[in-house]
Write a structure and sequence with these properties.
about 0% strand, mainly alpha
């Protein structure tokens, strides 16, 4: 007599049917983790580059202001006195700029004020 084949368990068929969903979920989790890591790396690289550009720009403005301040201190007339006060104002703004706090909520606003003040003084001095 032939042994009767045992009926296939429904769990085996469920595993086959649910394999696509399981693989989809696992693939999603792996992709999410890899994408998150890549996003952090790219964000760090972008932040470093952008921060270096802003630092270079601010440094240029400070160098400009300090150089002109030194040049104008030799002249004592009223016209140059006003220019020196204006340069002192620009230098003060630059020194108060929050270099080490990237979460400062008015960072862009303060940067725009410094840019405007620099353009104003550049036009006056040249």
């Amino acid at each position: 007599m032939a042994a009767a084949a045992a009926p296939a368990s429904p769990d085996m068929f469920d595993e086959i049917v649910m394999a696509e969903e399981r693989f989809h979920g696992e693939g999603y989790q792996e992709g999410y983790a890899e994408g998150s890591h890549a996003g952090v790396v790219e964000g760090r690289r972008y932040g470093s580059l952008h921060g270096a550009k802003i630092g270079s720009e601010i440094g240029c403005y400070l160098g400009f202001a300090l150089t002109w301040q030194c040049l104008l201190q030799k002249c004592t007339d009223e016209k140059n006195s006003k220019k020196i006060r204006a340069l002192d104002s620009l230098i003060g703004m630059i020194q108060k700029f929050p270099y080490e706090d990237p979460t400062y909520d008015k960072l862009q606003e303060d940067l725009e004020k410094i840019r405007g003040k620099f353009k104003q003084h550049k036009d006056i001095l040249w």
